[in-house]
Amino acid sequence: MEQKRIIIAIDGFSSTGKSTMAKALARRIGYAYIDTGAMYRAVTLFALENNLVNTDGSIREEELVARLGDIAITFGVNPATGQSETYLNGRRVEQEIRSMRVSDKVSQVAKIAAVRHALVAQQQAMGREKGIVMDGRDIGTVVFPNAEMKVYVTASAETRAQRRYDELRAKGDTSTTYDEVLHNVMERDRIDTTRAESPLRKADDAHTLDNSHMTIAEQDQWLMNLYTQIVAETSNGNN
Ligand code: DC
Questions:
Q1: Could you tell me the mean pLDDT of each successive run of 10 residues in the chain, 239 residues long?
Q2: Which residue from 102, 126, 165, 208 has the fewest beta carbons nearer than 10 Å?
Q3: pLDDT given at position 238
Q4: Residues paired with residue 91 on neighbouring β-strands, in sequence order
């Protein structure tokens, strides 16, 4: 019996460890992995670098939308680490897009309808051949409403802030405090869930994973079990 290639949509709040688990699953089963948050972050970096942010911190939306055609986002695998990395117009920006400067602005960029439409169209094209793991906020609801496997990941805001804080520290950022990170996490949650355009919400047919008290190994196993079960069902024609 031939195993069917499927689409795996992983959605949830920021800093839930979605990307880590999505990447690990993709590598384990030989699927492509796409981090859609990185795409919104790359557009945000472009806005910051091209004078498309006002002095009061607001985004010059119309000008940014007019320049969407100038923004090419691609992914490449770093041969040394085996990790997928984000490129903005041919320049590797994997580190820069994770900075607080970008994190502070990205929710504002991600709520612009024309930005979302452009990125969603690219994401749908990437999934045409299936065999893909994609993580984000609207993958199971908007990008691939028919995805065979949907996971909705949650964890408490404090757990997530601690994880992001540890990450920043590990990268050498000693100036950002835990309270600033917690504030950023909560503010992004608020914007991501209340925005008019594709707010973050659990798809009706998504499986919820609360990983507040799970180890990485436990969540990887949980995901693998679900994948194995769904592929067995779809390959048997039950779905
Ligand atoms: O997953 P992340 O923290 O890198 O996402 C960055 C921002 O992009 C976050 O504020 C929500 C937004 N985003 C989105 O609106 N839709 C997606 N599919 C992915 C991310």
A1: 86 89 94 96 98 95 97 92 92 94 92 96 94 96 97 94 91 92 91 88 95 91 97 76
A2: 208
A3: 55
A4: 88
Helix (H, G, I), strand (E, B) or coil at 173: coil
Residue located nearest, by CA, to atom 6 of ligand 1: 37
Task: Give the list of residues 6+ apart from residue 150 with CB closer than 8 angstroms, or none.
Answer: 8, 9, 10, 11, 139, 140, 203, 205, 206, 207
Query: Cα dist. 37→56, 93, 176 in Å?
Result: 24, 13, 21
Where exactly are the structural domains of the chain? Answer: 7-228
**β-strands 73-77, 84-88 pairing:** antiparallel
Q: Please write the tens of the pLDDT for every residue from 23-79.
A: 999 999 999 999 999 999 999 999 999 999 999 999 999 999 999 999 999 999 888
Q: Is the CB of 137 under 6 A from ligand 1?
A: yes
Give the pLDDT confidence score for residue 197 in this predicted structure.
87
Contact between 34 and 123 under an 8 Å Cβ cutoff? The reply is: yes
- Give the residue whose CA is nearest to atom 18 of ligand 1: 136
Q: What is the CATH number of domain 7-228?
A: 3.40.50.300
**Site to substitute for ligand 1 among 13, 117, 120, 137, most atoms within 8 A of C-beta:** 137
Q: Is the model's pTM score more than 0.70?
A: yes
Q: How far apart are CA 190 and CA 134, in angstroms?
A: 22
Phi, psi of 153 (to 5 degrees): -100, 130
* 3-class DSSP assignment, residue 11: strand
